[in-house]
């Protein structure tokens, strides 16, 4: 068991992953591993996906880049995909879910349009990322969280903070 847990926050773009991950990091003292930013900073891309209108992550290079940090524990990772991370890296996986109309508005205000907008809304309608998480991790560690309102955001933060405290207590109990 790691002294501090690793948490994965996943979901369709716009569901609130980076906002929640940053707040979890501030509240629980875990380090935020911002996969999209790390990929940009280190140019870990291999081409362009015209359906989603975004650069394609070079997953192997990203995994190499963050492996040492992940082995340390105490990390919160957010990304809009989850099947390529080693299963052993995460103690718990949260999948954020947002109603279509709200997600649509968030993505439009982010400048998404056309196929990129449609593909992302469909991704949420078909619960693609939730299924991916359930297929990639032990289903008992995968939790769906609503992310529609600021109340949802607060509840999710509270839930995750409680879980982190519980994890730390369990580690202390084992060490004693
Ligand atoms: N639960 C929520 N309630 C209201 N607005 C939210 C919520 N979660 C995220 N948002 C807003 O939606 C937008 C997208 O959030 P962001 O964290 O960037 O999503 P992601 O990282 O999943 O792409 C931001 O403007 C953010 O403030």
Protein described:
It is a single chain. A 5-stranded parallel sheet has the order 2-5-1-6-7, sandwiched between helices. Strands 3-4 form a two-stranded antiparallel ribbon. The protein has one domain: P-loop containing nucleotide triphosphate hydrolases (Rossmann fold). The mean pLDDT is 96. Helix 1 (17-28) crosses helix 7 (150-175) and helix 4 (100-109) packs antiparallel against helix 5. The chain is 51% helix and 19% strand. It has helices at residues 17-28, 35-41, 59-72, 100-109, 114-125, 128-136, 150-175, and strands at 7-11, 31-34, 45-49, 54-57, 75-79, 92-97, 142-146. The longest helix is centred in the last third of the chain and has 26 residues, at 150-175. Bound molecules: adenosine-5'-diphosphate (ADP). Adenosine-5'-diphosphate binds at residues 11, 13-19, 106, 147-150, 152-153. It holds the Pfam family AAA_18. Keywords: ATP-binding, Cytoplasm, Kinase, Nucleotide-binding, Nucleus, Ribosome biogenesis, rRNA processing, Transferase. This is Adenylate kinase isoenzyme 6 homolog. Its EC number is 2.7.4.3.
């Amino acid at each position: 068991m790691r002294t501090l847990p690793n948490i994965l926050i996943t979901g369709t773009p716009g569901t609130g992953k980076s906002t929640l991950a940053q707040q979890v990091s501030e509240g629980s003292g875990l380090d935020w591993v911002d996969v999209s930013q790390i990929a940009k900073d280190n140019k870990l891309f291999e081409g362009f996906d015209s359906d989603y209108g975004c650069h394609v992550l070079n997953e192997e290079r990203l995994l190499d880049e963050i492996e040492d940090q992940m082995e340390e524990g105490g990390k919160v990772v957010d990304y809009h995909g989850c099947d390529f991370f080693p299963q052993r890296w995460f103690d718990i996986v949260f999948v954020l879910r947002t109603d279509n109309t709200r997600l649509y508005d968030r993505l439009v205000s982010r400048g998404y349009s056309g196929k990129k907008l449609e593909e992302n809304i469909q991704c949420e309608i078909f619960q693609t990322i939730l299924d991916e998480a359930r297929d990639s991790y032990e289903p008992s560690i995968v939790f769906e969280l609503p992310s529609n309102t600021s109340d949802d955001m607060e509840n999710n933060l509270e839930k995750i903070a409680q879980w982190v405290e519980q994890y730390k207590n369990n580690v202390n109990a084992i060490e004693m």
